[in-house]
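ESCALATION

Customer reports they have been waiting on this structure for their group meeting. Please prioritize. Original submission:
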Amino acid sequence: MNRPVPPIGLPPILASLSAHWGWLIARGVAAILFAILAVMMPGLTVLTLAIIWGAYAIVDGAFALIYGARGGGTRRWTYVIIGLIGVIAGLVAFFWPGETAIVLVMIIGVWAFFTGIFEIVYAIQYRHAIAHPWAVGISGLLSATVGFFFAMFPGAGALSLIWVIAAYAVLYGILMIIAAFQLRRWRNEHPVK
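Update from on-call: job pushed to the front of the queue and completed.
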């Protein structure tokens, strides 16, 4: 099946998005590594879970901040906001891990919810700019749903949610990696001249 030929003079944001596909892979791999650590240590205490998740959120937030700062286009501020939310949430969990499980679950919930909302907005805004915006949109919907669930039902306790958190992180990571490879393929099919 022949692909439609893109119009001449594509916006600079397309070149920027496809040039930075590696940041999405880094975010996806970080999420999967977090999930593996959570599953491999089933006896995690709330303290350990808070430290591991805090480190993941800081790394993910840093990747988003770097992408937002280096990326082109007018919408890079969304990645800066996602990055700041991630870094702040990670620092709170990392430096105050002795807080109750409910506080940890609520921090994770708020972070996941807002990250998901921004990713859904991003997927809608750039649905014509990237080859398959569904991967970013579904990861955003997944994040927002899990975040909403955690925020609404924090009393379930962090230890009982380890499997849910790990499954979310794996799915999110896989979707980010798929989106990254789609951007890479788009870049290879539409070289900037």
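Sent to customer with the following note: Residues 45 and 65 are 30 Å apart (CA to CA).
Escalation resolved.
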